What we know:
- The chain is mainly alpha-helical.
- The chain has a domain at about 30-75 and about 235-375.
- The protein is built from 15 helices and three strands.
- It has a three-stranded antiparallel beta sheet with strand order 1-2-3.
- Helix 9 packs antiparallel against helix 10 and helix 13 runs antiparallel to helix 14.
- The longest helix is centred in the C-terminal third of the chain and has 37 residues, at about 275-310.
Amino acid sequence: MTAKANKNKQIHWYRVGVDGWLCAAFFSLLFIGIVMVASASVAVAENATSDPFYYLKRHLLFIVMSFMGAWAVLNIPVSWFQRLSRPALIVTMVLLVLIMIPGIGIEVNGARRWLNLGVSRFQVVEAVKLALIMSLAAYVVKHEEAIRASMLGVLRPILLTAVIVGLLLVQPDFGSGVLLMAITIIMVFIAGARYRDLTLIGLISGSAVLVLAWAEPYRVKRLVNFTDPWQDPFNAGFQLVQALIAVGRGELTGVGIGAGIQKLFYLPEAHTDFIFAVYAEEMGFLGVLLMVGLFILLFVRIFKISRQAFINGQIYGGFLCSGIVVWLALQTFLSMGVNLGMLPTKGLTLPFISSGGSAIMMNIIAIALVVRVSYENRKMNFRLTKQEASA
């Protein structure tokens, strides 16, 4: 076949279109994140670096870098990611081990979670999340019948995730470990695992989580204090108390962008883990409804793309999108739940909103993967429509 014929067979994105609602929700959340990072980090950045916009500049730089990576992802067929899923997971697991080595890994506040890249730091677990989802999607495509018929088919991915969780607990990163295990269980459920198998594994996993939580005194404090942070408002319950004060001050319409008080050295991690509390203070209940609505719209569109991929026979793309939406939805719920006092404090960022280089990069690349699956869905439908029209 000639190069000219190959060129004629190509169907570019502008001919098949894009998912407008998905893009609208994604870019809206990204814009809100930029505004809130600017607002929440000014005081902290000026105090730490004498540059009030240091964290904003850093956030924008990582977004630009992320879009460069996303552009590369958009030009790679989904089938390639299926082939690359195992090597990607192996590499990220090796990196999890390497960050335990002083000089390679960076320790912050007692946790060794960051890889030293010289010019910047990279939180490896963010790459692990996406690599695990890619690998799980490849596994369930290959072993879907085994997952539906036997306990062994379900246990294999669970045990793999348990190894990763063990590495995360050494850092320690309990929140990310729980998140990864939940993603794995939900993905095998979507693949058709039997209820009795999932019930037994769920009971074992839940018991293990409780044992691990009670094994460390600081985790016990978090579990006890989140139910009533006011019993120790200046120590163990300080973060949650300040977050609840911020949320309460927002009332219906908020105090206005930039006018929040809690971010001024009262609320720790105001531009990262607790940025939702700052947003609630400045935008109020109506602003929170807007953000939640945008997240719901984004998740619904990803689910729809996943469903269309299954209908079109792109099973890997369908499971990949399912895993990504489960990851983003769970992390969004956990992050908001912590800020609202519904869950114990965990070190999880709010997707697309929080400041954080590695997190925002992996979030954007994940959306690029979804857009690539959507493009292949639309390309297939476009061809079918043309064939029907010519017939």
